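If you are new to this repository, start here. Below is one unmodified record pulled from the training split, so you can see the exact layout before writing a loader.
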Amino acid sequence: MQTYLGIELGSTRIKSVLIDSHHKTQSQGSHEWENSLINGNWTYSLDEVWSGLQASYAGLALKTPPAAIGISAMMHGYLGFDKDGKLLTPFRTWRNTNTGPAAQALTEAFDFNIPHRWSIAHLYQAILNEETHVKDIAFITTLAGYVHWQLTGEKVLGVGDASGMFPLVDGEYDFQLVTKTNQLISDKVPWKLLDILPSIKTAGENAGVLTTQGAKLLDPTGALPAGIPLCPPEGDAGTGMVATNSIAERTGNISAGTSIFAMLVLEKPLSKLYPEIDMVTTPAGKPVAMVHCNNCCGDIDAWVKLVEESLTTFGATVDRNVLYTTLYGKALEGDTACGGVLTYNYFAGEPITGLDEGRPMLVRTPDADFSLANVMRSLVFSAIATLKIGMQILDNENVKTDRLLGHGGFFKTPVVGQKIMASALGTPVSVMESAGEGGAWGIAVLAAYLQNGSGKTLDAYLDEVFAAEKATTEKPCPELAAGFAEYMKGYVAGLAAQMVLV
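And here is the target side for that same chain:
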């Protein structure tokens, strides 16, 4: 039986998933890693990229080579290389929000929202800053595009990942906006924009084959042979859509982990530009409205670690999964609006609420019921509060979804995150069994589609993949919805404190 390998470089974990021809997971490997804040820049070193990839791949313990491979990673960010393939400046991840002047200038020039984390915003900010490296740029790409390039020698991106670098029209870089960009930079750099961007491919297209050098990068033992085809590299947003079968019109998904974002596939364009809404695409090139927030579960994780440390101090040991499940469950026991406890999960800046930097914060009124249940409820509410602000815009635009599916760490504990999310957004939220496999499984499915999808649209192929898939659905709870709405009033009012702190 043929197998297909998907690898995704997420914010905190590099995960490898091997699936069979029925798209069932056969083995997994993973490696935990963390970004570093160096000289004010959130980054990962390229050495960490390769050591992490090798460790994750080794965990699969493959007996036979896969028939196809797919690479996925965090979208956006900035990796710039010179003509010899040398990295010109440390990797700038999506988490960096110091690109405000560039994002604003490009948004005004394009009449198209350019978020802080997009690759073009990072590039233009470097130009505005007169950074010396920009004159030597020969190629810029995303993290997935970089890994794919090193494995295959091909400077390509999947259409979904490319749509987070620069605006697209019909699956290609918007020529009018490319021309405007060249006019803006003509007296500052010796190159033209299209000369340094990766080419674009859609799902199902061959994006190159594993080279001998690439095989050794992934598997230093030499057991992995060259010649294996790779599908177009994709961003984590695209693989999340695949992992939840959310690439057709009127479908949507919410990915909730280190960051949180909602992707809604549109039937028609939005009525106007919204700074809070990204316009990207599915891996098949369909237009998607994306609400992206830089912060989600990080503050929950920090408090869970504090509780774990407290228990350890007194000689108690609790399984980490049990600890998460129990503490998430406490959130459902809290007072309706968290009893006067208010938290902000802003480890990084949050453009939707106008913050270039963030400060995690817990505040409470003097008469608050400062209980574990209320703290946990506030932490879970806070994790989705900024998303709610962005989603309200799409509600006002009358964007319709027939189903909204959740995936990511926020939904790992049964019921809790799902029920609160449904109540906060006012729509049922479903979680599929396979959603727990995440983007690594999604990119493995795209690798399988490369080999087996001839003559089928990606929509049709995924409908076959998910034909027998089971899902659980939680509907909005009126009491939770009312409590969340009340909490949001205090949350929005308290943003002024964040502004002061940064």
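Two things worth knowing about this chain: The chain has 16 helices and 22 strands. The CA atoms of residues 215 and 224 lie 6 Å apart.
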